[in-house]
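Section: Multi-chain targets

For targets with more than one molecule, the full set of components is provided together so that the structure can be written out for the assembly as a whole rather than chain by chain. Components appear in the order listed by the source. The example entry contains three components.
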Amino acid sequence: MTALLDVRALSVSFGPGGARRTIVDRIDFSIGRGEIVALVGESGSGKSATALALSRLNEGPRCGYSGEIRLSGRNILALDHPDLRRLRGRAIATIFQDPLSALNPSETIAQQIAEGMRAHGMAGPDADDRITRLLGEVGIHDPDRVTRAYPHQISGGQRQRVMIALALACDPELLIADEPTTALDVTVQTQVLATLYRAVQKRGMSVLIITHDMGVVAGMADRVMVMYGGRIVESAPVETLFALPRHPYTRALLDCARHVRDASGHYATIPGTAETAFALRATQGCAFAPRCRRARPACFTHQPELAECSDTGRVACHFPLVGSKIDG
Amino acid sequence: MHRLTPFAMPVVLPWTILGLYLAVAILAPYIAPADPLAATGAPLSPLFGSSGILGTDGFGRDVASRLIWGLRPMLAVSFGAVFLATLAGGAYGLVAGGIGGRTDWLMMSVVDVMMSIPLILAAILVMAALGGSVINLIISVGISQIPVFARLARALASVEARKEYVLAARAVGLSRFHVLVREILPNIVRPLLVQAGSVVATAGLTAAALSYLGLGVRPPAPDIGYMVKEGQELIFIAPGQTLLPGLVLGVFALTAALCGETIGQERRR
Amino acid sequence: MTSGLLRRVATLPFMLLAVASLIFAIMHALPGSMIESLSAQFVSDAQRVRLMAGLGLDQPLWRQYLVYLNSLAHFDFGISAQTGKSVATMIGETLPVTMEMAGASFVVMTVCGLGAALIAVHAADGPADVAIRLLSIILSTLPWFWLGLVLIMIFSLWLGWLPSFGRLPPSIDYRPVTNFVMIDAVILGRPDLIGPWISHLVLPSLTVGLTSSGVVMRLVRSEILATMKKEFVLTARMKGIGANRIFLRHILRNAAVGIMTVLGAQFGAMLGGSVVAEVVFGYPGIGRMLVRAIESRDYLTVQGAGIAIAALYILVNFMTDLACLYANPRLRDGVWS
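Its structure, encoded as tokens over all components, is:
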């Protein structure tokens, strides 16, 4: 299976000279055709910046990229602006977290979906029908009304379904979903996820789903990448990762998600916040070391590289966990 | 703020100029070289001549002295009107927003009506009804600014009134007056002061416009706005007669606006 | 559309009634009311009584109020003491003049204000942006009646390019039909009116328009910058839309309500400014009529002019609101968040 997307040594940084902050730090990964990959991590870990970087959408003072992002062999970071525009929405489309602010409040749903189709010469005479059908497919029961509606006139769940339709409209090869259900009610979350899953399965689309919700990961993804402090610290097939996390941070994340209690009966938490990761980046060690219970002196002086740790998994840790079964 | 870096300069400069204006106005009797009402030389003596550094006006009165004395009504009205508007508009809005409900609706409808008259027209009509004097200028310019403050105070107060601490204060049975003045007021004062800082210039310009129209300070008392008008009649022979008072007014309005700006910035920090 | 629109239309008559009442209150109820300050100095007691009776001022206040409202409803503003003409006729002659000037000033204000704001947005935080921000403060604090005089000095006295006084040169024979020169030039087939009319209009509208544009620059700039940061702009970029189309369809389109609100609100300031500018330039509009009436204590003309200016202002605000309703679908549904 040749990879659809191949990312090599990608860095994203912002700010002027001395105050420059690297948000994403030399990450490597790839996504195969039809593969659904989840990218998990705390807020501030650089996962959203990675998602935006794939179609060069990051905004900010003096935002800069380095490395390579190859989509079917073409390096996105080397594209000129017209080519980049042709790629956006057509080859890579993104679903954003908060559909209310991500939709233009003064245009109807149909206008907003059609605009993207027109930009890529895909509108055609039957565009209206296709939009209606698409909305039906993403689970909107009265697509005829919704096409004419403005974003404020439909419910939050419907808005996210519209956002999904908008992203699917030009049949992209890679769909990026940036926390697609975080802004929704818990009851609606599962339904919307199911809709999304069905739609991408039907099209055989590759998906990168950004989330901090392990439930979403378990329900959708083939493979998981865990991000911490701007780096990917572990990558493995979803079953392997859940059964046998190798990186202490992954383990901690899973413990939190499963409400594991420690010996004294407290719920598992990860001490500190991801912000401390950036504060300590000046040292050359592992970004997680300051919060890691297993950290040893070497962890503070040498940064671990992401390396194969089994047939399918890779981990960036000097002292990965071995065979530690997770028990509730 | 302590260092006089290039960035601090724009902050220090307008406050210094504003201070100078105030100082000159307060010390007018000691600074002014001549009686602003008496003819001290030939009409329209030139600048830097024997009769006064800025020459004389069409009646032979010393221009420098008239400008110095003219600062007094200008500053009194600018600050007085804003003070009046902040106090009255702030109290009105505080009551409306703090009480809420039908009272709020009724009180703010009145403000909507006041807002639907151009500010300067309201000031003109009030001036026409009251007659010209410094106090009446303060009243009329102040009245024209009240709606702005009332709306702001109301918006702020109604947000505060819904917060937990106010509900808590009411729950323990504190009186309505106490809640308004002791609980809500301290939390809306700062934005009101920022607003006050930003309209001093507007008030000064409105007052000068009224005086220019002949509705302000009664001549022959020196007044900047009226000096512009007197100068206009001499525009063909002595352009300085209208340029000078206009500059004095314009610089005041600009510095007042810049100072107002710095009040707002400090709040943001 | 309907709910927001209907609610707005329904408030219009109440607004007009309320403002008419407010002006009545200013004229009658304030201490040292209009009529007293009018007649205190120059009139004998007997004349004063007759004057009061003539204006119906010997009646109780509530009665005067009802009479006042009744005559307003018939567009009857009484007879001017100064000219002997009906105040309604005088308003009909002067209000169009003011509307012309306010319209021209509005064009100046919009072109300069929006133009500068767009430049500032594209050069955000660069030297041009800083310069425009400074310019906007200076413009908004310039005493506009004084700026008028400076313009007269430069363009009329020194350069001799533009006239400084009046609306049309006295040498031109102009018998108004509608009192709008533009319309009359068409009706009467008099294209020769337009040139002199415009040359007289340039300085007053520059004076009022430029000084009002300062606020417009500043507010429109921050409105557009705020809209640019909205997430739907990111969505549009994600869709592969070109930068120009994003700016027009997504950014400007959504900033439009804010921009129109700014322009509408500034129109009020501008209308007030043109009252004064009319005096500076001897422009025969309603502002000059108002000021002259105050000088000559022509009570009914003052009242009529005040009502006319306020009514014009209310109508402009009303139209601004309609434009906002049209531009923003959420306002149409009565959603204000």
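Chain A has two domains: 3-221, 228-315.
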